[in-house]
Amino acid sequence: MRLLLAPLALSLSLLLQATPASAADRITGQPFTTRSEVIAPSAMAATSHPLATQIALDVMKAGGTAVDAAIAANAALGLMEPTGNGIGGDLFAIVWDPKTQKLHGYNGHGRSPANLSLQWFIDKGYQDIPQRGPLPVSVPGAVAGWFDLHERFGRLPMRQVLQPTIDYARGGHPVHETIAYYWERSVPALAQYPGFVEQFTLDGRAPRKGEMWKSPWLANTLETIARRGRDGFYKGEVAKTIADYVQAQGGFLSMEDLAEHRGEWVDPVSTNYRGYDVWELPPSGQGIAALQILNILEGYDLKSYGFGSFEHVHLFTEAKKLAFEDRARWYADPEFAPAPVAELISKDYAAERRALINPQRAARTVEAGNPRLNEGDTIYLTTADSSGMMVSLIQSNYRGMGSGMTPPGLGFILQNRGEMFVLKEGHPNSFAPRKRPFHTIIPAFITRDGKPWVSFGLMGGAMQPQGHAQIVINMVDFGMNLQEAGDAPRIHHDGSTEPTGQALQMTDGGVIELETGYPYETVRALMNAGHTVKFANGPFGGYQAIARDHEQGVYIGASESRKDGQAAGY
Question: Annotated catalytic residue: which of 83, 178, 378, 522?
Answer without folding.
Answer: 378
